[in-house]
Every structure is written in structure tokens, then in C-alpha cells.
Amino acid sequence: MTRFPVILRAAARSMAVLTVVCIAGCGASREPVVDYAIDGPSLNGVSVLRATLESVGHSTRVTTRLDDELSDWAHAIIRFASTPGGPGRDEEMWYLDWQELGVGGSLIYVPRDCNLEVEYWDALLRSGSIVDPDLAFEARRRRDAAAPWPLELPAREERYPPDGWKSLDIGLEPRVSRTLSGPWAENIDVKAAALPLHDVLVSQGGKILLTANEAPFVLELIDRNPGRKLIVANGSFLLNAGMVNPERRRLAARTIEWLGQPPLNIAIVVGWDPLGGAERSTTLLDLLGRLRALRMIAIQIGIMGLALVFARFPRLGRARRRSVEWAGRAVAHAEALGLLLARTRDAARAHALIAEYEAGRKRNPSLQPGPQDPRETISKP
To answer: Alpha-carbon distance 184 to 131, whole Å?
Structure first.
């Protein structure tokens, strides 16, 4: 029990460093992936969290679907929603059924209420690693373009669940936490953590584990339903770029500890509507859109394939006349020479040359073929 946080932090640190290398590349000249809550090297992805869960003994899977098979498999679910606020009515009822009838126990719900791309460009500019003025200008442009992310969030809908799922201060400007308190705030450097805030949770009698700027940030719901429920105001310490920060990794470690002792089957659910329609499997076009290296390989293969098609393409134009076969015939040489002369448009000279060879063959019996195969005669020394 005492070694669990140590192992967790070490694993998170190594995975976070690896992700920074994959995400940032060598500088601002390489545009990072910024998709929200995908299982890949994205600033807003969940691959580091998944690797950390597995490093301490949990089994994980990332999915976009809530179905019966997942209900039977998962002991815990971490839901990264693509919309702000709480889940819709159907999704909330699915969680209740899962906790009552399945093997389910712990649910962590993370609404979409942050975009770590802004932090990424800010940190890159402050680091002083960009010395080229053009690259610095491009980094500032991308930071400024990503700054109004709250305006791009989907419109809020009326939510069925209790008020504990909802949030306050809708539409406030994003800000950074100045204070942290609660059980999870112990030994956390507030300034270094710099948790981004937008909406604020409503406690409604739940157990507040972490407050930021005196408002609930991590809330454990207390109700009569079975299972445990945890709401995190945003994914700032659970998404890839957030877990690069050592203070936020401490909060991620406490979130993982809250799930329970390993081994557990933990499903990370992402996407817009986990109950709507059939799950669409990842296609080659999806991978090409997400992975630049794969796009370059595909382009090279395409160019080579196109060159091969042109090399094998039938040649258009006048058909070639079949060449004269030797086959041991003495007159073949004259015929070949006559064809060459015919190509020069000197047909009379060509006919005369062939006639001359024919007459010479009749005058000289040694040029007449014998009973044996002429090719055998010619091949003998």
C-alpha cells in the first residue's frame, strides 16, 4: 500500500516524458495533435492515463460505446465527455443499471471544460526554446487561435440527473486557480499546479475532495444508489499534456487510487454519444488523418504504385512488326536486312537484295538445307 503512489508517480513521469516527445516534436514547426480525449499522442488525449493505469496492474480499454459486453467486463468507468455539464438522461440511466446489475462499482465523469492546447503554446513560448522569429510568431498565432475554446463548446442541453452533475458560472472567462483546498490539496503546490478553471461544480451535499478558488473541483456524489461516483470539473490533470506537470500528476495519482486496488477492469469511454448507433471502427482514413508519419508513408507508396501502373500500361500507337526468326535459315539475314531497308522507304532496293540472295541460294547447293535440322547444322563447329 505504501509503494503504490511511488510506483504510480514514477510510471506517470516516464510516460509523460515520452508523450511530450511524441506531442511536441522538436519545436513549434511541428503542429501537435489536439483532438479531445482520444487514445493517441494528442495534447488532449488519454494515452498517458491509460498507460499509468496499466503500470499499476489494471486492465484497460478505450471505447466509444456503452453496451452489455462492457457492462459485464468493466469494474470501473472513466468517462471523458465531449460536451460540458453532466450526462444525458439515457446515459445516466445506463450507469445506474450498470452499477445495480453488473460488476460495476466506480464511475468517474469528466465533462469537457478545458483545452490544453493554449497551455502548450504558452509553455513553449515561455521556455525560450523558440529562437526563430517566424516560429515564435506562428506559436503565438496558434495560441491566440485556441484561446476562445469556450465559444466552440457545444450548446448545453437540459440534463436529467441531479444538480450534482450540473455546473455553475456558465460562460465565465477561463482562469487559473489561485487557491486549492480539501483532502486532495495536501502537498500540492498551487502555483505550480495552475489548474485551469471555467465552470464550477455544485456540491449538493456531495463530498468535496478538492476545491479551486473556493469552488468544488473534485466531487464525490453521495446518494442511495449503489456504486461510487466521482465528478472532476475538467480533465486538466488527467489528459496527456496535463500529466506532464508534476503537481497535476499527484492529483491524477489520487484519482487512480480512488478507483480501488488493482487489478480492476477499467474502461475509458470517449466520444459524443456512447449509446447512439453502432460503434464505428477506426478506418485507414481515420489513421491517415491523425498520423502524419503514416500519411507520408501512404504518399510514397502511392507514388511508387502510380509509377508501376504507368510502367505496365499498354503502349499506344502503331503495332511493332514481329522480328524475323533465324531458325537456321540462311536467307534470314537477307530478310532482316531487307526489312531494315524497307523502313528507309527504299522498297525496290530491299526486294532486289532478297531476290539476289534467293538466286545465290539456288546456284550454291551448300546453302540448301539437308535432311537434318538446319539449327543443328549451324550450331556445329
So the answer is: 39
Structural contact between residues 66 and 269, judged by C-beta atoms closer than 8 angstroms: yes
203, 219 Cβ separation under 8 angstroms: yes
Instruction: Classify the C-alpha dihedral 81-82-87-92 as positive or negative.
Output: negative
State the pTM of this model: 0.66
- C-alpha 272: how far from chain center: 17
283-292 confidence digits (pLDDT tens): 666 666 656 6
Q: Which three cell numbers stand for residue 27?
A: 519545436
Specify whether the CB–CB gap between 16 and 23 falls below 8 A. Answer: no
Phi, psi of 216 (to 5 degrees): -60, 135
**pLDDT of amino acid 174:** 76
What integer pLDDT is reported at residue 360 of this predicted model? Answer: 73
Question: How is residue 224 written as a grid cell?
Answer: 442511495
Point out which residues pair with 36 in neighbouring strands.
44
- Helix (H) / strand (E) element for 336: namely helix 332-343
| 8 Å CB contact between 256 and 218 | no
Count of beta carbons in the 10 Å neighbourhood of residue 84: 20
- Angstrom distance (rounded) from CA 74 to CA 59: 9
What is the largest distance, in Å, between two alpha-carbon atoms of the chain?
A: 124
Burial 65-80 (b: 16+ CB within 10 A, else e): bbeeebbebbbbbbbb
CA dihedral 29, 42, 87, 114 (to 10 degrees): -40
User: pLDDT by residue (tens digit) across 181-236?
Assistant: 999 999 999 999 999 988 878 776 789 999 999 889 999 987 767 788 999 999 99
- Strand positions, DSSP E, 164-226: 167-168, 175-176, 180-181, 196-197, 200-201, 207-212, 215-221
| Spatial strand order in the sheet of 207-212 | 59-63, 265-269, 76-80, 106-110, 228-232, 215-221, 207-212, 180-181
Phi-psi region of 85 (alpha: psi -120 to 50; beta: other; left: phi over 0): left
Q: Please, what sign has the CA dihedral across residues 255, 261, 263, 266?
A: negative
